[in-house]
Structures are given as C-alpha cells and as structure tokens.
Amino acid sequence: MFDMSRAEERCATLIAFAQRFGADAADAVAIGDMSEGVQVRLGALEDVERSESEAAGLRVFVGQRSASIHASDLSDAALSALAERAVDMARAATEDQFAGLAPRDMLARGPFADLDLEDSSEPTPQQLRAMAQEAEDAARAVQGVTNSEGGSAGFGRSVVALATSDGFSGGYAATSHSISASVVAGTGSGMQRDYAWRQARHATDLLPPADIGRLAGERAVARLEPGRLPSKVMPVVFSPRVSNGLLGHLVGAMSGASIARRSSFLLDRLDDTLFDSSIVILDDPHRLRGLRSRPFDGEGLPTAARTLVEGGKITGWLADSASARQLGILPTGHAVRGAGGGPGISVSNVHLAAGTASPDDLMSDVSDGVYVTELFGHGVNGVTGDYSRGASGFRIVDGALAGPVAEFTIAGNLLDMFAAMIPANDLEMHRGMNAPTVRIDGMTIAGD
C-alpha cells in the first residue's frame, strides 16, 4: 500500500495528464487500503486473511461535460491512458449546467488539523487471534450459550489523497481496530443468536475482548423463549443499538441531491417545526479519533461542526457542489468520494444529544410497550417517510422489561416519529452515528 506522499503525487500526475489531453478542469483521488482479520470458531482457527489495494479515480470537465473513471494500475503509462480516455468520454457526454469543481474561493487550505485518526501500533496475526479467542471464550462461558458463530478481530489502515486543478491538495491517514463475537443460545427450534462488536481508530479505545464476548453471550441468552406481541398502538423504546438508524433516515432526507430530485419527505419543510424544541442533533467531522472524522470533504472543501437540528427545526440541506448549484445555495462540505464515480453526499460523526431521563425513567410510565433491540428489513420510503420494519426485543409491562418478544413489525411515519422522539441520558460515542435510548409513543405494532 502506498504512503501519503506517493498518493498525493499520483493525484497530481493524474491532474497534469488530464490537462495535457484537453480537460478544462479535473480532480483526482488516490486511496490505499490494507486490512487484516482473524476469525476463530469453537476454539479453533477458522480464517486468516489480509488484503491490500491501491486505486485512483479521475473526474474531468470539458466545458459543462464531465466523465469519471478509475483504475488500480497507478503507473505513469496507465494513468496517462486513463486521463486520455476520461477526456474522450467527457467530450462525448451530454452537457450538465450544474457540473463543475467546488468553488475555488471556498477550497480548504492547509495545514489541516490533526484529528488523531492513525494508531502507530499494528497488531500481529497472533495478537489478533488471541483477541478473537478471548472474545469467543467469554461469550461461550455465559450459561445458556450452546454454540458459536465465531469471534473475530481485525485491523485496517487507509490513506486518502485528493487534488484538484484549482490548486487544492491534501490527504490523511487512518487506522481501524475491531473485535466481535456472535453466539447461539438454546437448542433446537428455540435457538437464538446475538452478537456484540466494537470498532475504534486506536486499540486503546476498544473494550476488552472478554467484555465484548460476554455481552454477546448475555444478549443471546436474554432472547430465549420469546413471546408474541398483540397488534395495537403502543409506545416503542429504541435501544442505542438501533436508535441511531433514525438519524440515518433524517440525514438521508436532508441530502441536497434528494431535495433537488424532489424525492425527500422533508421537501418544503425547511421552516417547519419537526421535533420537540429540546432535540439537538449535531455533525462533528473534527471529533478526535472519530470513525467518520475528516479534515476536508470529497471536493476539497473545509469541514466544520454543524448543528443539524435545533429549536425543533432542521438547519438546512447537506450539499455537494452540484446539488448546491441546483438549489441555489453554497456547498456545505458534505461531499464524499471514493475512487469510482463522482462525489456523493454524507455526514460525518453525527449524534443525538442526550436527554435528562434515564432509560428506566423513560419507560417507567409505559403500561404496555416494547423495547426494540433489533430491526430488519428495508421498509422505509424516503419520499413519503412511511416507516415499517421487522423487529425483536423485550415487552415493557408496567414500566419494566417483561421478557423477550419477536416476530413483529413496527410502523409509523418518520415525521410523526421525529415529533414524538424523547431521548434518554445514556448516550455513548463509539459509533460513527450515535444516539441514546429513544422513546416514541403512538407507533403501530403488527403482531398476533
């Protein structure tokens, strides 16, 4: 895998080739990745794998025509041929009045902040195996666990560099450590599976492998002998394992591309009060060691912390340069870029601010409800906001958890759900998108 200087040099070379072949403007990205993982099952080594990759992507503009192309051969000859082909493709493309690089006067300028995304240490395969084994052993030691799908540990390192013909050049490196365990409890038709995992930029920020394994085992055992729910309207309490998905639906609907296509349930609701006034949702790309932290966006624009929801309202759309031109606004620094294709739109580290009540307090007045720990299916309509997901979890009776339940569906509309959201005080910041326990009253349950 190449280092930062090599990645930045390959980007500059691509830009130079593109201009030589007639591009009016261009941007290039170079990405290097290395990953290594070890998986054990039932105490035996099951899999060891390591992969390394290098790729570069080029986007060129000839007037208002553009084309994107990428390759994994980064030799001078290959990049020259790549650039020539991209310019030929652009000349044959249709014109797009919104095409173009990010505004020159808005480009980020270095030096960039050190976000502490790179761990200098790298575990050996033997150390990864030991961590995976420790996690699985702890999970299998939980009484009631009868089988295992395995424990795993992994490490990755990546380098990203971006350059534009308007003078931007920058890059950053990051690492990733992960541990997981997945086990089965019970026997026969009554078996239940669950898991636990953690990921962090630095190894010292991970939970101990035994804690992760123990959590996986306890979760699996807690799901044994699930009951069924009646079909009715009731309060739903989303555990932190799934509540962050609500934030994902929100930011997807705030995408400038969706708004420009008129395919978002938030269309024409920019000035509407959608949440309780106490709800605050923030996006922080500069969080130290954050899983989605980045010093600049996929078009070379600066990134900055932003409040997405405040005073009950969303604070505006999330836009790359193309969607910003369509909407008549400025780009917001939310462009993301891979080696293939042009920029997309995404947030960084997002979290729903914690409330004041504990999860127990949040459930204390629920006479009959459900605490959801797992969601599945893709029944969310981004245009209407209609929401329907399969779920499992625990029934709430008279303010307390009263046993596992499964095979039911929760349904509502995201606008109604946002308006009814009540967050608890148990926010933890170990994911890219984080939310505490969240209560939403008035959801429809489809069960027996």
UniProtKB/TrEMBL annotation:
It holds the Pfam family PmbA_TldD_2nd. Coiled coil: none annotated. One of its GO terms (biological process) is proteolysis. One of its GO terms (cellular component) is cytosol. One of its GO terms (molecular function) is metallopeptidase activity. Residues 119-224 form the Metalloprotease TldD/E central domain. Residues 232-447 form the Metalloprotease TldD/E C-terminal domain. Residues 35-90 form the Metalloprotease TldD/E N-terminal domain. InterPro entries: Metalloprtase-TldD/E_C, Metalloprtase-TldD/E_cen_dom, Metalloprtase-TldD/E_N, PmbA, TldD/PmbA_N, TldD/PmbA_sf. Belongs to the peptidase U62 family. This is PmbA protein. The lineage of its organism: Bacteria, Pseudomonadati, Pseudomonadota, Alphaproteobacteria, Sphingomonadales.
